[in-house]
Specification:
Strands 3-2-1-4-5 form a 5-stranded parallel sheet, sandwiched between helices. By secondary structure, it is of the alpha/beta class. Helix 4 links the parallel strand 4 and strand 5. It has 6 helices and 5 strands.
């Protein structure tokens, strides 16, 4: 069984993330969405909220593709998380060249830690390349329209966080 791990903070999950999840599901038999706890980032949504949003957004996709999609919070090294879930592959989404430079360094370090786990890069579809969770939160905070970047369910939850 081929198991892939798609890690991120997902604060919140965006249409770009969902695009990568949909395409990653075609490469594996089981896809684990690794939700980084990462207390240093000061997320808008707590861990339980992020996990529930991802589960809600991926439920239909799992049924549609027939692929098991599991949400797995983690706070350890990514390579250790990959080992914990039995992943042979780490899936990373790329939006721009700037992402590649950072990701390239991470692959080198991860290969030093465990060269049996491959990293696969998927480019975001053109309409999703500019989407970043950080920008979605900023737009929402300033009362802008985020409907082009997240699902209606996620939009409602983001807007609720900024409601006065």
């Amino acid at each position: 069984m081929r198991i892939g791990l798609y890690p991120g903070t997902f604060d919140p999950i965006t249409l770009g993330h969902i695009d990568i999840i949909r395409r990653a599901a075609t490469l594996v038999d089981k896809l684990v969405i690794g939700v980084a706890i990462n207390r240093d980032k000061g997320p808008l949504f707590n861990l339980e909220e992020r996990v529930s949003m991802i589960e809600a957004e991926c439920a239909a996709l799992a049924k549609q593709t027939g692929i098991e999609i599991v949400v797995h919070p983690f706070e350890n090294l990514l390579i250790n998380c990959a080992r914990d879930v039995g992943a042979q592959m780490i899936v990373r989404g790329l939006r721009a060249v700037a992402d590649f430079e950072y990701e390239y360094q991470m692959v080198g370090m991860n290969r030093q830690l465990d060269d049996s786990i491959e990293t696969v890069f998927l480019m975001a579809e053109a309409q999703h390349q500019a989407i970043a969770s950080k920008l979605v939160k900023e737009i929402a905070r300033l009362e802008g329209d985020i409907s082009k970047f997240v699902t209606p369910r996620v939009e409602a939850r983001v807007l609720a966080k900024f409601a006065v």
